[in-house]
């Protein structure tokens, strides 16, 4: 996903431009730290105290110049309008936020999109509602796979997401699949010796039909008109 995000940012913004980035639901800050190291001004919003502590610990070991480019706000993803003015950011990340139970997810996305300046980019990562049965099926969990063929009405597939992004003023520009072949790997599994090859295959599959359509996650990039 980091490769995909960088690809889109490089294509959309002038080389060397220091971007204003908002990371909504930043988790443990992997993307925020990467972007701050790249020279961008990053603001993270997170409500989980353990995640915030992990981010602060990670940034504490960075040079002062990088630490100065990072700001953390404790709050919920749906409260962006409380903390920021509309149009305050060039790039907004909303990765994994909609993977949890969220009341009125479309309204949350609309609020997030309002933070974008004209021409700004929204990077959205969600579970792929069009392929909900894949992980269970590949793992041999047949009961789970059968149940997943009837996902909740709140699940997001590509068609619904395309409509939602158009409706909130950040129409879909491009999309990728994430974790096409590796979704069944156990949490905390040791990285394989041929990790570079694994990443190359995932990168290729994530941008190639029909493989990206059955990925565990969808990474969509919308652009503010």
UniProtKB/TrEMBL annotation:
Instruction: List the Gene3D superfamilies hit by this protein, alphabetically.
Output: Vaccinia Virus protein VP39 (3.40.50.150)
Keyword match Nucleotide-binding: no
Q: What are the GO BP annotations of this UniProt entry? A: methylation
Stored InterPro entries: Methyltransf_11, SAM-dependent_MTases_sf
**GO molecular-function terms, A-Z:** methyltransferase activity
Q: Has the keyword Cytoplasm been applied to this entry?
A: no
- Entries under Pfam families matching the protein: Methyltransf_11 (PF08241)
Q: Which SUPFAM superfamilies match?
A: S-adenosyl-L-methionine-dependent methyltransferases
- Which keywords accompany this UniProt record? Methyltransferase, S-adenosyl-L-methionine, Transferase
- Methyltransferase type domain: residues covered: 22-123
- This chain belongs to the protein called Methyltransferase domain-containing protein
Q: Which organism is it from?
A: Streptomyces cellulosae
């Amino acid at each position: 996903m980091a490769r995909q995000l960088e690809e889109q940012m490089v294509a959309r913004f002038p080389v060397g431009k220091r971007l204003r980035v908002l990371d909504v639901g930043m988790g443990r800050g992997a993307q925020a730290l990467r972007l701050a190291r790249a020279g961008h001004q990053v603001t993270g919003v997170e409500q989980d105290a353990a995640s915030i502590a992990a981010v602060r610990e990670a940034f504490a070991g960075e040079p002062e110049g990088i630490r100065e480019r990072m700001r953390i706000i404790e709050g919920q993803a749906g409260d962006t309008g409380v903390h920021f003015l509309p149009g305050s950011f060039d790039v907004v990340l909303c990765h994994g936020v909609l993977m949890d139970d969220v009341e009125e997810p479309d309204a949350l996305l609309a609020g997030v999109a309002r933070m974008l300046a004209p021409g700004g980019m929204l990077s959205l990562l969600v579970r792929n509602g069009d392929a909900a049965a894949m992980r269970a099926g590949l793992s041999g969990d047949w009961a789970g796979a059968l149940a997943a063929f009837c996902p909740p009405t709140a699940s997001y597939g590509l068609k619904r997401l395309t409509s939602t992004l158009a409706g909130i003023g950040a129409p879909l520009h491009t999309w990728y699949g994430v974790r096409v072949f590796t979704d069944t790997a156990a949490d905390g599994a040791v990285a394989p010796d041929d990790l570079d090859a694994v990443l190359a295959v995932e990168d290729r599959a994530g941008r190639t039909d029909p493989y990206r359509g059955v990925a565990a996650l969808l990474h969509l990039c919308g652009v503010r008109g």
